[in-house]
Design brief:
Helix content is 44%, strand content 23%. The protein is an alpha+beta fold and 219 residues long.
Length: 219
């Protein structure tokens, strides 16, 4: 958790107050942290493991919005607005989540520095959301896939750092992009041919960011 850029930006006493206001939630793979429509009950930080945020479309298909990795904090909008959760969050693997109690969160929000940090966190999440919307509207399928791979390699919604390997199945990536598994396979094969990526079971390795960035520009 201390490796989280957002958490690390907090003052030491604020970090301690946040942790003291949390309870620990242990999730098994496939277990829900909360479902769409559930009332707010915490401001969450992923200590280990990975979660996914998703929703069901009218046709019953699942749309994966984000992969929430260790170090990510989320749930601030429901805590501030009091509105129910807008999507489902479920564990992709066994995970440990810290959940700040509403009362503790509200007390911390009385501190101007913490309130500013929450505003910055919301700005990060909003920028991420606008980027996803922009990609869907303005780019070709191949460019959308390439751009999402770059985003995932940067920590997806946290944009916290870079890695060369993305632990994600092709099925899940297709659900994130709202394309068929067959279409994704064709486009990934083209990226392999360009020397941009290599494919492995349950993961995608970025071999050349330059080649991938070039694909991002091809429309």
């Amino acid at each position: 958790m201390r490796a989280s850029p957002w958490y690390g930006s907090l003052a030491r006493d604020t970090q301690q107050a946040l942790l003291e206001g949390c309870w620990i939630v242990q999730l098994k793979s496939g277990e829900y942290l909360f479902r769409r429509g559930d009332r707010r009950n915490g401001f969450y930080g992923v200590n280990n493991g990975r979660l996914k945020a998703s929703t069901l479309r009218e046709n019953g298909k699942e749309a994966i919005l984000a992969i929430i990795e260790a170090g990510n904090w989320f749930g601030q909008m429901s805590m501030i607005s009091g509105a129910p959760h807008a999507h489902d969050v479920v564990a992709l693997e066994n995970a440990t989540v810290l959940a700040a109690r509403p009362q503790a969160f509200e007390t911390l929000m009385n501190d101007a520095a913490f309130a500013k940090a929450i505003a910055q966190l919301q700005s990060i999440h909003t920028s991420w959301l606008y980027r996803i919307i922009d990609d869907s509207a303005a780019y070709s399928t191949r460019a959308r896939i390439a751009r999402r791979l770059v985003l995932l390699a940067s920590g997806d919604m946290s944009m916290a750092g870079a890695r060369e390997e993305i632990a994600l199945s092709q099925e899940m990536l297709a659900m994130m992009l709202d394309i068929t598994r067959q279409t994704l396979a064709i486009e990934l094969k083209a990226m392999v041919a360009k020397g941009a990526i290599s494919l492995h079971y349950g993961r995608i390795q970025i071999l050349s960011r330059e080649a991938l960035l070039k694909l991002r520009e091809d429309d």
